[in-house]
Amino acid sequence: MNLEKTPAIRPLTPENAGILGVATLGNMNWCGERFTCEDIQADPVIAHYTVFDPERGDFGFIMTRDSVIIGVAWAQFLGRGDPGYGFVDDGVPEVSLWVSPEDRGTGHGRRLLQRLLLESSSRGHGRLSLSVESGNRARDLYTSEGFVPVPGREQDGVMLWRVP
C-alpha cells in the first residue's frame, strides 16, 4: 500500500524560482537529451523561461512532497520584445508546466495546471497561451483542459485557453 503524503501546492515565489532552470531543461528535453543547462542559459529564446518576475505579473505554483519539488506550473508575461514560443499577444501570459519524470502520469500535472487556470481567472486574464511540440503527450492534457490550437500557428504547437 502506498502511504505517501498527497503532494502540496503552494505559490511560486522568487526565492524558489531556481527550480525553473531544472523545469525548463526538462521541458526542452521531453523527448530525449537535446539540451544542457549551459545551452538553456546561453540561448535567450529559452533562458527567459527561467526568469520569474512577479512585478511584470508572472505567477505560478510549485508542488512538493516531503519538501521536495516534484512539479511547477508558471505563467509569464514575456511580451512582444522578448516573445516565448507560445507568444500570441502582450496581454496573454504564456504557460509552462513541468512534473518530475517519476511523477508523470499521476495527475499531478493536471492539478498544477488547473490551479494555474483558476489563478489566471481570478486575476482577470481571459486567455493563456503555450507551445507544445508535436508528439508530446502533454498536448492531450492541455486539450482536455480546454486549450485549442491557434489557427495558423498549429505547426508551432501554439495553443490558447480562454476563460469558459
TrEMBL record:
InterPro entries associated with the record: Acyl_CoA_acyltransferase, GNAT_dom
MF-aspect GO terms: acyltransferase activity, transferring groups other than amino-acyl groups
Pfam families: Acetyltransf_1 (PF00583)
N-acetyltransferase domain ranges (all copies): 7-164
Stated name of the protein: N-acetyltransferase domain-containing protein
Lineage: Bacteria, Bacillati, Actinomycetota, Actinomycetes, Micrococcales
